[in-house]
Specification:
GMP Synthetase, Chain A, domain 3; Spo0b-associated Gtp-binding Protein, Chain: A; 10 helices; 18 strands; alpha/beta; elongated; Rossmann fold
């Protein structure tokens, strides 16, 4: 199955904790601190893989984590750094923050590799905290926590020209005739379930890339059918070939169809609807007596609006050469920079302000404080040392926990319990 969207959770590695230890050597009973530093946590890195053209790898696995850094050891041993996790995506993948929809990275053109989440720094061992007044520090610094983020991956096809039009107007047949693409062709709506890319070779030039954007239906801009799934692929194209069934073989009016499709484009993204269009009036091999009449009606309606009409037949090849050379010449004259989606969300800035939750409950007169931020702090703080205990008190104050305890009516002498530790409260 072709997959052009996926929602995943990415997590960087936690930094290893610094170690608390002291030298124990023969004839040196009270050696100094020698606790080593923790290793750095691994990064989450996205890279472009030329061999991929779908996001299928991310449809069946939801969570991707880098490796944590190792804790420091005795004898100044530094913990091993965690390994990065490398996530491979096809070119054209846009990475967005899932909740806000803001762009984090656009994996296109020169951007082949980008670190999205950095791993936590390793904590310092107690060897770093010895001073003249405190020669045996019994605490070390914890590693920085990991960072977790839910992201939306969207593959937006990169092509110079997009083929648009209702289903069954002959886009796939046209593409198979003019490029090396081999689209599946059948006669029912949504025949093409994903964009087919092909390269149009023009004599004496490098040609251009064309994408068959799957057939649209009315209401596509509002998400009807697979509307949004398909419309996003038009966002990078420089111009569009609008294919219509000039023969009306399915009882459709080609003029009416052109207006309907352009209305869908405008509703989805007005800027896209203003891009250059050329109209390919297809299936003229099915027109007999009224061929000239139909083509003249299309020209009268749309050429004053700047949309040139080319009568073609995907079945016989008639008119296609003229159309392709016109499109190629138009692209060469355009001074249009490639569409790149600028970064709007910066994980390193946003995530640093996210507070881990905690709760305060009163059980039989005891104030019970729990939550991941408390558990982490207790896990790397030596409460038996004076400095460690002062450090913990400062944390309780800075995080607003002491203020909330007072709001809940705590008084001097009351007991506070946190994960097996009990304290008497004093102001």
């Amino acid at each position: 199955m072709f997959a052009d969207r996926a929602k995943i959770i990415i997590k960087s590695g936690k930094g290893g904790d610094g170690h608390v230890s002291f030298r124990r050597e023969l004839y040196v009973p009270n050696g100094g601190p020698d606790g080593g530093d923790g290793g750095r946590g691994g990064d989450v890195v996205f890279v472009v893989d030329e061999g991929l053209n779908t996001l299928t790898d991310y449809r069946h696995k939801r969570k991707f984590s880098a490796q944590d850094g190792e804790n420091g050891g005795k004898k100044r041993c530094h913990g091993k750094d965690g390994e990065d996790i490398i996530l491979k995506v096809p070119e054209g993948t846009v990475i967005k923050e899932a909740e806000s929809g803001k762009v984090i990275a656009d994996m296109s053109l020169e951007n082949r590799r980008q670190v999205i989440l950095t791993g936590g720094r390793g904590g310092l061992g107690n060897q770093h905290f010895a001073t003249a007044t405190m020669q045996i520090p019994k605490f070390a610094k914890p590693g920085q926590p990991s960072r977790e983020l839910e992201v939306q991956l969207e593959l937006k096809v990169i092509a110079d020209v997009g083929l648009i039009g209702f289903p069954n107007v002959g886009k796939s047949t046209f593409l198979s005739r003019v490029t090396n693409a081999k689209p599946k062709i059948a006669n029912y709506h949504f025949t093409t379930i994903h964009p087919n890319l092909g390269v149009v070779d023009i004599d004496g030039s490098k040609g251009f890339v064309i994408a068959d954007i799957p057939g649209l239906i009315e209401g596509a801009s509002e998400g009807v059918g697979l509307g949004h799934e398909f419309l996003r692929h038009i966002e990078r194209t420089k111009m569009m070939i609008h294919v219509v069934d000039a023969s009306g073989s399915e009882g459709r009016d080609p003029i009416e169809d052109i207006y309907k499709i352009n209305e869908e484009l405008k509703n989805y993204n007005e800027e896209i609807s203003k891009r250059p269009q050329v109209i390919a009036a297809n299936k003229i091999d099915l027109l007999y007596d009224n061929k000239d009449e139909v083509i003249e009606a299309l020209k009268a309606e749309f050429e004053p609006e700047g949309m040139k009409i080319f009568p073609i037949s995907g079945a016989t090849g008639e008119g296609i050469r003229e159309l392709l050379y016109y499109v190629y010449d138009s692209i060469q004259k355009m001074d249009t920079p490639p569409v790149i989606f600028e970064q709007e969300y910066f994980p390193e800035e946003e995530l640093i302000y996210i507070d881990l939750p905690y709760t305060i409950e009163i059980e039989d007169g005891v104030y019970v404080v729990e939550g991941p931020k408390i558990e982490k702090m207790l896990g790397y703080t030596n409460l038996e040392s004076e400095k460690g205990f002062l450090f913990f008190q400062k944390f309780l104050k800075d995080s607003g926990i002491l203020e909330e305890l007072e709001e809940k009516g705590i008084e001097e002498g009351d007991t506070v319990r946190m994960y097996g530790h009990a304290f008497d409260y004093y102001q």
